[in-house]
Amino acid sequence: MSTASPRPTRKTYHHGDLRATLLDVAERLLDEGGSDAVTLREAARRAGVSAPATYRHFQDREALLAALAVRGFDAFAAALAEAATDSRNPLASMGQAYVRFAVSRPGRFRLMFGTAVADRERYPELQAAVERASVGFRGAIDAVDPRGPGVAMLRAWSMIHGLSQLVIDGMLPGYDAELLARAVTSGE
Questions:
Q1: What is the pTM of this model?
Q2: Are 137 and 157 in contact (CB under 8 A)?
Q3: Residue 7 falls inside a structural domain
Q4: Which site from 57, 74, 99, 137 is most exposed, i.e. has the minimal number of CB atoms within 10 Å?
Q5: In a shared domain, residues 79 and 43
Q6: How far is CA 162 from the centre of its chain?
Q7: List of residues 6+ apart from 48 with CB closer than 8 A
Q8: Residues 41 and 86 occupy one common structural domain
Q9: Does 9 map to a domain?
């Protein structure tokens, strides 16, 4: 009969989809404190895994941020498409959805359009997501100005993006973002 105590059983933690879990956690970090709050170490801690486990899915912090931006652009594309569906003025509806999107998730919006992902060319999936998000907007502009997206696209995008930035940066206190978006996009 052995008097040695039994070996403690090692508890291991297995994630069904660690990549998706890390992205979910990173989105919460993004909402809480912007892109500066998103780190692989903190995402791992909140996901209940070791920090090295994150490197199986993301090469570095920028890769995690790029994946978050892809998610953001895909959600953005869906919001714009939904707004344009059955709309008498798809461009105005999409412009209003653009502002709503920015206001609802300012951290995500800043990540998508900011410089936290410095080398966007390193992430073809991010470039593809940007393209998916912009194709509907370009189509709505083409319907209004058949000369092509050039200046008309830049004008419309600058106006609605600028309004979005002003609202989320608190530069228009006391104004209702939805009313402002309607006024800017509809000329009311």
A1: 0.85
A2: yes
A3: no
A4: 74
A5: no
A6: 17
A7: 13
A8: no
A9: no
Distance between CA 144 and CA 102 in Å, rounded?
Answer: 24
Q: Residue 170 CA to chain centroid, in angstroms?
A: 20
Residue 105's region, left for phi above 0, alpha for psi from -120 to 50, else beta, is: beta
The tokens describing 109, both together, are 């919006």
The number of folded domains in the chain is: 2
Residue linked to tokens 């912090």: 61
* C-beta atoms surrounding 58 within 10 Å: 19
Q: Three-state secondary structure along 122-172?
A: HCHHHHHHHHHHHHHHHHHHHHHCCCCCHHHHHHHHHHHHHHHHHHHCCCC
What residues make up the domain containing 50?
14-58
Number of CB atoms found within 10 A of residue 39's CB: 15
- Under DSSP, the state recorded for 39 is -
81 in the same domain as 52: no
Chain position carrying tokens 């900011």: 114
Other beta carbons within 10 angstroms of residue 186's beta carbon come to 13
Per-residue pLDDT of the chain (188 residues; tens, 9 = 90+): 545 555 544 344 555 789 999 999 999 999 999 999 999 999 999 999 999 999 999 999 999 999 999 999 999 999 999 999 999 988 899 999 999 999 999 999 999 999 999 999 999 999 999 999 998 888 877 777 766 656 777 788 889 999 999 999 999 999 999 999 999 888 55
Confirm whether 1 is domain-assigned. Answer: no
